[in-house]
Amino acid sequence: MHLYNLTLQAPTAITQAIVGNFSGARQQEIIVSHGTRLELLRPDPQTGKVATVIASDVFGSIRSLAAFRLTGGTKDYAIVGSDSGRIVILDYDPKTSSFVKLHQETYGKSGARRIVPGQYLAVDPKGRSVMIAAMEKAKLVYILNRDAAANLTISSPLEAHKNAAIIHHIVGLDVGFENPTFAALEVDYSESDQDPSGEAFNNAEKLLTYYELDLGLNHVVRKWSAATDPRANLLVQVPGGQVAASDRYDGPSGVLVCCEDHIIYRHMDAPQHRVPIPRRRHPLEDPDRGLIIVSAVMHKMKGAFFFLLQSEEGDLYKVTIEHEEEEVKAVKIKYFDTVPVASSLCILKSGFLFVASEFGNHYLYQFQKLGDDDDEPEFSSTSYPAFGMEEPALPLPRAYFKPRGLENLALADELESLDPILDAKVMNLLPNSDTPQFFTACGRGSRSSFRMLRHGLEVEEVVSSDLPGIPNAVWTTKVKEDDAFDSYIILSFVNGTLVLSIGETIEEVQDTGFLSSAPTLAVQQIGEDALLQVHPQGIRHVLSDRRVNEWRAPPGKSIVTATTNKRQVVVALSSAELVYFELDLEGQLNEFQDRKAMGSTVLALSVGEVPEGRQRMPFLAVGCEDQTVRIISLDPESTLETISLQALTAPPSSICIADILDASINKSHPTTFVNIGLQNGVLLRTVLDPNTGQLTDTRTRFLGTRPIRLLRIQTQRNPAILALSSRSWLNYTHQNLMHFTPLILDTLDYAWSFSAELCPEGLIGIAGSTLRIFQIPKLGQKLKQDSMPLSYTPRKFIPHPANRYFYLIEGDHRTYSDEVAAQKLDELRSKGKMIDDEVINLPPEVFGRIKAPAGQWASNIRIIDPVDYKTVNVISLDNNECAFSLAVVPFAARGGELHLVVGTAQETYLSPRSCKSGFLRTYRFTEDGAGLELLHKTETDDVPLAVMPFQGRLVAGVGKALRIYDIGKKKLLRKVENKSFGSVIVNLNTQGSRILVGDMQESVYFAVYKAPENRLLIFADDAQPRWVTAVCMVDYTTVAAGDRFGNVFVNRLDMKVSEQVDDDPTGAGILHEKGLLMGAPHKTKMLCHFHVGDLVTSIQKVALVAGGREVLVYTGLHGTVGMLVPFVSKEDVDFIATLEQHVRSEQPSAVGRDQLAWRGYYVPVKAVVDGDLCETYARLPAGKQSAIAGELDRTVGEVLKKLEQLRVTASGF
Amino acid sequence: MSSELRYTANTQLEHLHARYTGTGHADLTKYEWLTHQHRDTLASIVGHPTLNSYLAIAENESIGRIKFEMTERMLQPCGPPPPKDED
């Protein structure tokens, strides 16, 4: 087996974000790391919308990012710390729209190791040096400078190692133009490692250490070191240094040390200031629980600065420092606003705050005010004795605030993110859909959601109105060439034409010069200010003064089809003749003296737009009934001569020539494509050679069941093609590459572009007798999301086999369910405690829920209607139980009646794993599945993490034990058990009497149930231990699984073993067989192995295209959706594998990781080709493309076609 | 092996141990080995974004808290060392 891995949706989680002027222009941009992918975002300060500029896979794991700017420079660079053992400086090149690697310095081994730097990055604020640090010991300092030609240079590294020191955080100190200094938060473990009494451990000091880079001596010295709070976790740079022009200081310099419950201002030879982190005054708060800061941002404005710190609850605090020159007078903290917990915060100069959420959607907020003059309580270090440092070991009295809705920030934009996907199913549930949808359970805690993803572009409807009749075509037109917006809508009916004018309202107009008594074939704004209407009897050329020049079709003949552009008109007559008109310099439409007889009825015509600076488009495409398309010259030298011919498989229904930029073919100029739609719903796309007029590089695609209609439109001021069949498709350029994506829209009969003041980039279409105006807001997004909120983190969901509902279990650790919270509050009230209702009634989806101690759970079973995205019913679990598994089981003992079995556990602790008691709850479906009735609960000794129906009974994985249960009156009855599994059973699959058991640590076991002897036996397992997270039984002997470290693999059992096991009726043979390698008697063989870089949460074997082959679709925790496609032939494998090898050598990773080593992170890649790497072939420079193609004995077009074909036939994407 | 060679081999080994924290040697105790294993694992968890998210979801804590607690635990992941035998 050979597989081709392709990512359908790249990870959407943001692990870090940095802000800077990366393109060197005035505007600020944000670079975000998606873990394995870098993306450049550009927020538009006017509209407040965030647009993606580029995104590229780095084939490595990004661990840290930092932006820096050389002194006096205008452009920021990005430094990337990754698992490559290399430091990389990236420059965004706006010309080629790519990240260019300026420097790559190797310092250590690859991999995310303890003592190899890459985890932390700190830059000097003046851009003179950078420190890169590991989790322990290693810190390297690089000096950044310019050479004579103003190029960025990097020095060899200087070591600032400290043995046996665990590094918590590092930051660059702002010291102005003095020697660059870095602050590190370190703990030394050498003493506590030696002290058996544990005293040294208890007294271990967390040190704040300054490392100074002496630029004169070119080495790093430990300048200062002082103990700070033992629960410090984060350092924040405080501005400092003198302003160049005056003697004034920008700030006091030093750092803010964020500790549990406190913020300390700290600097060498300066008094400390300490303030408490204000807490929410919640009646149920756990007084023992500390509060830490998880992300921070400092912002400098003219002559002032402030900090925004975010606590782990999501509350933002504004911290200000009052200082006189270098002396700090006070540190003040106050509550600012509450936003989702962020992995990174970025403040933009244009007044925006970018919040890269650690889970769920990301947000862009606009600052409304800076919280300066509100009555929010402010806590200052001056109100405590010795600035809060009188007793550094004792906490300050707790400070409280009252959370409230947003006051200082306003939401500007939201970036959808699937992160984390916890479970997913691919199914086709929508009526009228021929492709399946992805149903995903996403999110964490109260911001969780259930989302349906559909392949296609989202369409936003602006207007929809009914028309008196059924039109067969619609156009819009400007009146003059330089009009910004369209003025008329022209609707053609069977027996007439209706003209509407676009103004404040849309209304019918009469005096436009258009013929209203006949249907229309084409409308064009022609020349400078004239309009043109083609109708079956002739052509009307309406001049600006409303004079009409009319050309009439010869008697007995009529016009059947027409094509136009700004200067040319071609019509086909019913006698299969072509008549050609061209606009002369006076604006007169002149007929070419000859007519061209085609010999077969003309069905479709197309002439492209006039190329810029040219008189005419020299080619015309003519599609005839004899199943051919001919390219005909319109050049004055050879007018109406046939240049080339292409045979088709069906009569054409529509042709469209358009110039579209596709960087895979031509980097700088648009390519002329001839798109031919056939009556059988197939689209052919060919490239027209601009010199010879030959058609090359044909690609085909099935669009739908109806004859195709093709229309040239504009998207984001670029030409695009709309293809209408039973589905509507858009062919457009995004980030310089061509995309072909369906629109999520009902079938359209005709469409045209529509531009008005309120809807500048819209489309107008007709569907039956309705006229619809719509726009496409998010180009480039291939999956449209519809979502519905959930209460707690979703765990798993399953569909009901008969009705269309989904049953989803959700649960959160350290959370009081609403019932428990209400009960506890009542208790407090009865004790006479005053309770502030405002705090309790804060919406949890914004503020989260109050953290409870470990062992407290809240959980629900939710019934979802996935088509209407609504919750049908919620059954909350009492008794401090949380649901971990569920299955719909047809119990044979009850005549196959379906029951829902939910595996729950009471008072579960995660570490060490324990619970008071596990339960199997058996429910009966009521109201056709919309309700559940609890029949009974069966106690178990451990958490049942996996349940599954099996031969009319239930099989459950309870801790280490696999058991089969049958239904009884009061309980489920245990029938058989096998307790010899490695650690914990997390996954179950079955076929026949075989059960595949996924173990938490020990990979997948093959077990069999032998009914005659009532035995459950393990007969095969994996030779490698694996932390399995998702398993899919591909066939009777094959299993595909994903593990916790981001690998997917396929294992297969030997056919002989499989048969032998099945032939043994009692299982006695297996029972007495000798174990192999301290495990089962047989081992599965690994067929494929691949590191996808994201933790796989579900795998499913499914066909993504109607009638297509089945592929393995997987989802990843960080929001990845990908697939593994089996190759059909050995030739394909050889070809793609060779291509991969060439691309690998031509396209080095942006973070300096070796792609092959990355894909073989834990186990060498086996029999899987990295499609994401292969697809970067399209972005390679033309020279390299053709060199690689030459090595493969193909043309560039053939290679690209093969890649596209692999993607399209497997996924339709 | 000449005594001189043995001497250089030893210094090289010492050098390696000083340079690569966590490298084992013949006299490694169970406690030391386990502590190294745990520290390596904890550092690896903090270094892999997906594992951070995974733990954060399971524990229902923020990623920042998980990273902090993991780093804190690196100080003494397996409790205090066993008392040394006097002889």
Describe the structure.
The complex is a heterodimer of chains A (1213) and B (87). Chain A is mainly beta. Among the domains of chain A are: 67-75 and 97-413, Methylamine Dehydrogenase, Chain H (7 Propeller); 423-455 and 793-961, YVTN repeat-like/Quinoprotein amine dehydrogenase (Methylamine Dehydrogenase, Chain H), CATH 2.130.10; 980-1105, Lipocalin (Beta Barrel), CATH 2.40.128; 1127-1211, DNA polymerase, domain 1 (Orthogonal Bundle). Chain A is built from 12 helices and 91 strands. In chain A, the strands form 22 sheets. Chain A has a 5-stranded mixed β-sheet. In chain A, strands 10, 11, 12, 13 and 14 form a 5-stranded antiparallel β-sheet that branches. Chain B is mainly alpha-helical. Chain B has a domain at 49-74. Chain B has 4 helices and no strands. Chains A and B meet through helix 1 and strand 24 of A and helix 2, helix 3 and helix 4 of B.
List the helices and strands and how they pair.
The complex is a heterodimer of chains A (1213) and B (87).
Chain A lengths: L2 E7 L6 E5 L8 E5 L3 E7 L6 E8 L4 E7 L8 E6 L3 E8 L4 E9 L13 E4 L5 E5 L5 E8 L5 E3 L3 E2 L5 E8 L8 E8 L1 H5 L4 H4 L3 E9 L4 E10 L3 E6 L17 E5 L2 E5 L6 E4 L2 E2 L12 E9 L2 E8 L3 E10 L2 E12 L3 E7 L3 E6 L4 E6 L10 E3 L19 E2 L7 E7 L5 E7 L9 E6 L6 E7 L4 E7 L6 E5 L10 E6 L2 E7 L3 E3 L13 E5 L3 E6 L2 E5 L5 E5 L6 E6 L3 E6 L3 E7 L5 E3 L4 E2 L4 E6 L11 E6 L3 E6 L8 E6 L4 E9 L10 E8 L3 E7 L6 E8 L6 E7 L2 E7 L3 E7 L2 E7 L6 E5 L7 E6 L2 E6 L7 E7 L4 E6 L6 E8 L4 H13 L6 H4 L3 H4 L9 E9 L4 E7 L4 E11 L5 E10 L10 E10 L4 E10 L3 E7 ...
Parallel strand pairs in A: 1-91, 23-32, 82-86
Antiparallel strand pairs in A: 1-90, 2-3, 3-4, 4-5, 6-7, 7-8, 8-9, 10-11, 11-12, 12-13, 12-14, 15-16, 16-17, 17-18, 19-20, 20-21, 21-22, 24-25, 25-26, 26-27, 27-31, 28-29, 29-30, 30-33, 34-35, 35-36, 36-66, 37-65, 38-39, 39-40, 40-41, 42-43, 43-44, 44-45, 46-47, 47-48, 48-49, 48-50, 51-52, 52-53, ...
Chain B lengths: L2 H17 L10 H18 L1 H11 L3 H11 L14
Helix pairs in contact in B: 2-4, 3-4
